[in-house]
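Quick check before the chapter quiz. The format below is the same one you will see on the exam, so make sure you can read both the input and the output lines.
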Amino acid sequence: MTSSARDTPALLEAEALALRAGERWLCSQLALRLTAGECVVVLGPNGSGKTTLLHTLAGLREPGAGVVRLQGLAYRERSPRDNARLRALLPQIQVEQFSCSVLEATLVGRHPHVGRWSWESRTDLAIAHAALTRVGIDALAGRDILSLSGGERQRVAIAALLAQQPSLYLLDEPLNHLDLRFQIQVLELFRELARDGAGVVMVVHDINLAARYADQVVLLDGRGGVLAGRAREILQPGRLADAFGHPLIRAEVDGHTVFVPR
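Here is the expected output.
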């Protein structure tokens, strides 16, 4: 890490982080430092602890050891409302338990910014509509969310995150239910948000998309091991094969690094 990178204030930090599930350790001594403008991709086999790590980084789960800091402070040092204004979490599974309009579902993202006894303002409504436009579904604003397809619901969930206007986006499999066109659109959207000064941490399953969009990678192997660092250092065939249990070949195609099973 260069001196200038060390001097840049960290948006998110994990220091000596250890995670466990029951009696099983998922990782230990994880160090992560994310500055504004960067994208971190979390990779690993099924059951390796990717969601557990993301929830810990979001302050929703206490680590087994170590500390997580958001803009220099542990989560407990801020109120839940203040934390919600700074970071937003997209869960892996979207569950709508009651009927509401797409616009109302998107306005959930404005809750940290609205007073306890207040209604959404015209500004809040404009922000929600802009978020829906950005994911290409403002025309569905009046539709019942229960009538949408899985991919459309996923885009509504992303719109709610955009309406929240956080500094840090934590995304658990944001490409769920999306076809290829919308997968790339969503990844480009979050890269654009990073260029505008946000930080992004996302769990994905596609190693090649990670190679294309990640600045840093956290690689869990499912046996308690973890590697974290710049994408070009972590995304090596031997390291990936060790984590995923299958040999890979690295190639360059049209200027992009790709990995294919051997």
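If your answer matched, good. The longest strand covers residues 24-34.
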